[in-house]
């Protein structure tokens, strides 16, 4: 008797069931847009005004333009998916899957798009500043973190 036959006899009969066996809630995102700012901030880890501004800036990125036959979901929906995944519990894709009623693989697709768009936006928006600004930051850090020599030279032998 081969191992394949033996494993079939020992393990219970496993039938693949239909996908999406739980009931999806497709209204979560639409309802969350009407929440008070405190609740919205708790769920998405940013206020509604900041969320709307970020959506407005991200909408200009061509990565959110559909190139196939099916249209993409709105940028605000994809950003919400990204924030649900990375804002709470690290990188749990199931939270976004259940709350938004989308497929598991779709979470990764939306997050990849948003990350790329944020990175491209950051390259345009975030600047290091000129030399004067560098010196200003260096002075501020020195004042904030400076430890006088007398304090930093503690005799280790006295702490036995």
Written description of the protein model:
The mean pLDDT is 82. The chain is extended and about 75 Å long. The protein is mainly α and 160 residues long. Helix 5 (75-87) packs across helix 7. The protein has nine helices and no strands. It has a domain at 22-125. The longest helix is centred in the last third of the chain and has 22 residues, at 104-125.
Sum up the structure in keywords:
59% helix; 160 residues; mainly alpha
Instruction: Indicate the proportion of strand residues.
Output: under 5%
Q: How do the helices and strands follow one another from N- to C-terminus?
A: HHHHHHHHH
Structural class: mainly alpha
Low-confidence stretches: none
Radius of gyration: 26 Å
DSSP helical segment count: 9
What would the principal axes of the Cα set say about the shape?
Answer: extended
Distance between the termini: 69 Å
Helix fraction by DSSP (H/I, runs of at least 4): 55-70%
User: Largest sheet, if any?
Assistant: none
Strand element count: 0
Overall pLDDT level: 82
Write the layout of secondary structure elements.
Blueprint: H1 3-10, H2 28-32, H3 37-44, H4 48-58, H5 75-87, H6 93-100, H7 104-125, H8 131-145, H9 149-152
Helix pairs in contact: 5-6, 5-7, 6-7
TL;DR of this structure?
With 160 residues, this protein is mostly helical. Helices cover 59% and strands 0% of the residues. 13% of the residues are buried.
């Amino acid at each position: 008797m081969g191992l394949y036959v033996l494993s079939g006899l020992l393990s219970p009969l496993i039938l693949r069931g239909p996908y999406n066996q739980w009931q999806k809630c497709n209204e979560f995102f639409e309802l969350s847009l009407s929440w008070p700012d405190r609740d919205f901030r708790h769920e998405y880890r940013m206020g509604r005004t900041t969320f709307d501004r970020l959506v407005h800036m991200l909408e200009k990125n061509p990565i959110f333009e559909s190139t196939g036959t099916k249209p993409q979901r709105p940028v605000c929906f994809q950003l919400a998916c990204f924030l649900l995944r990375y804002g709470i519990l690290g990188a749990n894709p199931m939270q976004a899957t259940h709350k938004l009623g989308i497929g598991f693989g779709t979470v990764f697709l939306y997050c990849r798009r948003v990350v790329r768009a944020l990175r491209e936006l950051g390259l345009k928006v975030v600047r290091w500043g000129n030399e004067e600004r560098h010196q200003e930051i260096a002075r501020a850090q020195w004042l904030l973190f400076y430890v006088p020599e007398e304090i930093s030279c503690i005799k280790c032998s006295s702490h036995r």
